[in-house]
Structure formats: C-alpha cells, structure tokens
Amino acid sequence: MPIHRARAARLGLRRRATAAVIAVAAAVLGAAFLAPATAQAQSTTVQHVGVPAYFNPDASPGSTYWTQLDQSAPNGGIAIANPNSGPGSAFDQGYANAIQAATSAGIKVIGYVDTGYFGTTGRTTRGGATTTAAWTTQVEGDIANWYSWYGSYGLGGIFFDDAQNVCGTNNAYVNLYIAVNTYTKQNHAGALTADNPGAVADQCYAQAADILVMFEGTYASYSTWTAPAWELNANNPSEFWNLVYDTPTQANMESAIARSKQNDVGYIYVTSDDLPNPWDTLPTSTYWNDEVSQAGAGSSGGGGGTSPTAPSNLQATNVTSSGLTLSWTASSDSAGISSYTVYAGGSAVATTAGTTTTATLSNLSPSTSYTLTVKATGGEGVVSASSAPLTVTTQAAGGGGGASCTTSAGSGALTSLTACKYSTYEYFQATFNTSTSLHHVFINTDANTATGYQLPSPSTSKLGADYMLENNTLYRSACSCWGWSAVSGVNPQMTVSGNTYTWTVPLSALSSPAAVEQAEFNANTSYTAVLTFGQS
C-alpha cells in the first residue's frame, strides 16, 4: 500500500507564488482570538467536521480512525479519501469498505484529485508533462477512476487539491476549475465538489465548486486570519471550509472553532497533528469528541441544524433481471436538499443531486430480493432519517421475454405492491393487512383514464379501470359506473400465502393492452397509489 500523500504529506503544501501569505501574529498559542473586523460577519448556526482522512483503512491505526469517523455522524459531515495523492493505480477493497461504511453512517466521502494548478506553475503530471491539456487529461482520468472503482460503494464527490486562487487573465485560471467541476457533475449526478487553494480565493471561484477551502495552516496563523468580505457577505457557510493544524490543546481547538464560526465557515477541521503530514491521524478521543460537539453546537449553543424530512413513497419501475429504476417523493429542508443516497441492504449503491428523485440501479443479480431505502442530505450537511424500506425482487435471468415491473412499498392496509408485464402475461401481488372478503386489482389497460370504471373517493385517481381482478375472477368494465362482466375461459391463477395475494393474467385475455398500463389495489375503502408498468 503506498504511503499516503508521501510527496508533501498535506493537502496543498505546494503553494503558487501568487498565493496569499498568512502572517503569524499570535505570540502565545493560548491567547484569545481576535474577532473578524468586518461588520458583515455572520454567526454560523451549524457546522460539520470536514476531515482529510489520509490514513490507510487496510491496517491499524488507520482502520480505527475510519471507525472513529463513522461514529461522528452526522456532525462529521465530509471525509476526503486519498490512497496515494489520488485514487491510486488500482481498486482497493479496503478503501471500498471504508467508503461504504462511512457513507452508510451518513458521512459524505469525496475522492482526492491533484490538479497541479493545471501546470500554470510548472508542476508536472505523473507522466512528466506540464501543459494544461495534459493536466486536464490526468484530472479527468482520476475522476473516472474514482467513480469506476468506488462509485458503487457510495463515493460522494471529488476534492480538487492544489487549486489556483486567482481568476487569471480573462478568467483563464478559474475557467479550468469550472470546466472540471462541470465535467464531474455531468458525468456523476449528485457529486459534491471542493476546491482547495488553501488560501483566500478570488470571488470568481464561487462558481468553480460547491465548497472552497479558504484557509489551510497552523493554529497560530489562524488566530489573526479573517475571511474576505465576499465570503462573509455570502451568508452561505456550507460553501466554505477551513483546515487548522498544529493546535496543541483542546482549549486551543475550541478557540479555533469559535473563530471559524465568526468567519461564517460551514466545514471545519482542527487537529493537534503537525507537518510533515497533519492529516494522517485523528485527534485523541476526548479532543475529537469535543471537536465534533463544538462544531455541531453552533455559535449560539443550538442544535446541529435541522434534519431534512425523510424521503417517502419509494417505487421501483422497469424491474428486470439486472436492474431497476427507483423513484421517491422529495424531502424538504429549510436549507434545501443537496443530495440523496440510495441504500440496498444498508449499503450505499447510488447518489443523486438534490433536485433528482430517481436513480437507476444496474448490475443487480437475477431472482434476488433487495431492500431499498433512501436518505436525504440537507444543505447544511445534516442527513435525514431513512425512508421506509421497499423490497424488490429482480426477475429471473432470461425470463419473461422482456419483463418490466413496478414495485411500491404501499402503506397501511395494502403493502408490498407489484405490477409486472411480460411478453405473454401480467402479474400482480399485494399484501392485504386488513380483513376483507374481496381482494381487488383495478387495471387501466388502454392508458386512457376517461374510459372504464372511475374509482371513487378515497382513491386519489379515477384510473379508468378497463378490467378488475376480484379474488379469482377477471372482469371487464361495461361502463364508467360499477358495471362488470366476467371474462369467460380465463383463470387468473390467484394464489395466497398468508396475507399476500398473487395473480397471473394471460395477455390474451386482455383486449389490445397498451404498452404502458396502470394498476391500483383495493381493500374495503383503502386504495393504493397508482402503479404504472409496461413491457420493456
């Protein structure tokens, strides 16, 4: 296993000549910090710890540090994974397990990528080139490897180190970072991005990433550091991150976090560790637990920010032998939703942007049941409670002739709902959690809600049911009212297992069904939401 960050042992030790030099003005480390001078300074109400986790999860003590991180959620908001100044040369199962465990605990893990200032300071790529084009190729390749190797384990984004902090002539420098930010988000929905100039960046960089590291240095330097006016006026702490090392005592750490709140910083990490690599350990448990608590407490002593509402109404469509599409009802949070994470059996399998409420899952195993849940991450980094679980069973390998299913968790009287369409038959299943003598499935086969039986309230949809399954009989609608005629010669093959009812209906029994149909289950006065299903 390569030594982590062996080249410089810190996030951005190499600084460009144009980087701002932060003066050391505190003669005594324990001295009280000076408050930022600007009248526009805000009081941050919530923070999260953002940790450069440059320790190897494959061995002790690195594995212990990763466990310690997991236990800090939700205030331990971000961890940067860094096998070897980037994703390394090959997949590492230890990192995969660490990323998956941290993500499942509610920590967003982002992958380290060295941008080398895109060659603007003469830095060479791993291949020895200095051109901007060569650096762009290397950066994009590292991003691709991060997601190829660790995307399915819950990787949440990319950390761009050794970033420029000045706009450049005609925005030439900042446009390089805007380009790789766009590349990342276009290819990996929901990715969180961070730039690390390690020094005050020009305001043009607000468009270059979701988060900017505006300070990286010692506690002594931090004692006189003040955020620039544009940061303080932004009133959006979640866009800024400070990293403070060589902070000897717990009291020093508390002072540093207090100052970061005055500087309106949303992400903070303070450590007693020092150069050559201040990021290869975590502080002792007492120091660390206090840091997590101090960050989450907010400057006014409040709680750790509001938690988003849990995603709801999970529904799986296009269920095949190897994949499915999952959708859900959006969460809400006063700070907005930054992303959603999908879990299968407790393991993160997909991440989407906060504006996206669908995810396509692939590479699933045939004839396998998956229990799916979704969590939302709010704009302040707080993770929601888990959604209600949805259990979905993939189709048999090669079976069904292009089957497509929709599955929904349902609620109350009717749960575990499934509607499938195969090349020769349709399949319906539901669990009835209430006593009823009539078990109904209403089916809109012509995709026209104006024809067929109009479902009454409390159904939220008129549906326009052309057919009805009632226990073991298939009926065809005769009007928009309650008027039905039994379809002769058809056995829906209803089976019962406990409270779960299953029907199989041959397509030949249905008159010219549309490619996409709708179904709704009913028990007494309880109706489900509509399930839309069709043949792929």
Give an account of the 3D structure.
- The chain has helices at residues 62-70, 93-105, 132-150, 172-187, 219-222, 229-234, 250-262, 285-297, and strands at residues 48-53, 78-81, 108-114, 157-161, 192-195, 211-218, 240-245, 267-270, 312-319, 324-329, 337-344, 347-353, 358-361, 369-378, 390-393, 404-411, 414-421, 425-432, 440-444, 453-454, 463-465, 467-470, 473-477, 484-486, 495-497, 500-506, 516-523, 526-527, 531-534.
- With 536 residues, it is an alpha+beta fold.
- It folds into three domains: 48-297, Aldolase class I (TIM Barrel), CATH 3.20.20; 310-392, Sandwich (Immunoglobulin-like); 400-536, Immunoglobulin-like.
- It has an eight-stranded parallel β-barrel with strand order 1-2-3-4-5-6-7-8, surrounded by six helices.
- Strand 16 (404-411) and strand 17 form a beta hairpin.
- It is elongated, with a radius of gyration of 28 Å.
What structural category characterises the helix and strand content?
A: alpha+beta
CATH superfamily of the largest domain: Aldolase class I
The CATH class of the largest domain: Alpha Beta
Number of helical segments with 4 or more residues:
8
Question: Which range best describes the helical content: under 10%, 10-25%, 25-40%, 40-55%, 55-70% or over 70%?
Answer: 10-25%
**Rg over CA atoms:** 28 Å
Tell me the span between the first and last alpha carbons: 45 Å
Low-confidence stretches: 1-45, 298-304
Sheet with the most strands? 8 strands, parallel, barrel
Overall form: elongated
